[in-house]
UniProtKB/TrEMBL annotation:
This is Transcriptional regulator. Residues 64-138 form the Transcription regulator PadR N-terminal domain. InterPro entries: Tscrpt_reg_PadR_N, WH-like_DNA-bd_sf, WH_DNA-bd_sf. SUPFAM superfamilies: Winged helix' DNA-binding domain. Residues 1-35 are annotated as: Disordered. It comes from the Bacteria.
Length: 249
């Protein structure tokens, strides 16, 4: 969820934060600014697609989108993602993010712009998104919006095996989940209200809107199913006549 509007990429190098020391351009032996360094291959199969393209996982997408706003150093990206509460939609840790940024740079989707330093702090490398990085980001967004992806959340697994519990316990677990989801919904409604008060255009927090609706649907299903089990409306005792009935369905 982006908590501030995206801004155009600056036409000249800027520091990652207002007031930061200027970025010092790094030059190649020819004296020209370093261009994206194309590597002969990426040495991990987890992010390789057919044709040798780097697969953009959710964290890589979120990171590239922030670089698309302006050049930044990795810690600035991490701080921005934390400030925008993006850990609600992607698994976020500093180490994993820095590793992802390195891989994006190795693949030519980010390029080193220069370094900056402040006081006694070590120099930090500032990266910019490349034209290829922007192209791949846009293509991946289109792909994920257009094509449903088979995901494997844990809750449906538990629901599918819920019949192993006594009926009263199964109903109780769903009731407790309903209460927990109610709490989440209250928090999301509060956040949405604050964003609305700040006049942040809705297009920047449509992810919150989606999660709010899907969480609400799950909450209603849990409450309805718990009530049906408790009322005996769902048979909890009859065994299937064929043990493989479920497998062959």
């Amino acid at each position: 969820m982006s908590a501030s509007p995206r801004v155009p990429k600056p036409s000249s190098p800027v520091s990652a934060r207002s007031g930061s020391p200027p970025v010092r351009s790094r030059t190649a032996r020819t004296g020209d600014p370093l261009e994206p360094r194309a590597l002969p291959g990426v040495y991990s199969i987890w992010n390789i697609q057919p044709g040798g393209l780097v697969q953009l996982n959710p964290l890589a997408i979120a990171a590239l989108a922030i670089f698309a706003e302006q050049p930044r150093h990795p810690y600035d990206v991490y701080a921005t993602m934390r400030a925008r509460r993006e850990e609600q939609t992607v698994k976020l840790s500093a180490g994993t993010l820095y590793h992802t940024i390195n891989r994006l740079a190795e693949a030519g989707l980010l390029a080193e712009l220069g370094t900056e330093s402040a006081g006694n702090r070590p120099e930090r490398t500032v990266y910019r998104i490349t034209a290829e990085g922007r192209h791949r980001l846009d293509e991946r967004i289109r792909e994920l919006l257009r094509e449903p992806v088979q995901e494997y959340p844990q809750f449906p697994v538990a629901v599918g095996e819920m019949h192993n519990l006594p009926a009263d316990e199964a109903a109780m677990m769903l009731q407790e989940r309903t209460v927990a989801l109610d709490s989440r919904l209250e928090t999301m409604d509060l956040v949405a209200g604050l964003l609305d008060e700040r006049a942040l255009p809705r297009r920047f927090w449509l992810d919150l809107d989606l999660i709010r609706h899907s969480t609400g649907a799950e909450r209603d299903w849990c409450a309805r199913t718990a009530a049906a089990i408790a009322a005996g409306e769902i048979d909890w005792t009859t065994l299937p006549t064929r043990t493989a009935a479920k497998d062959n369905a």
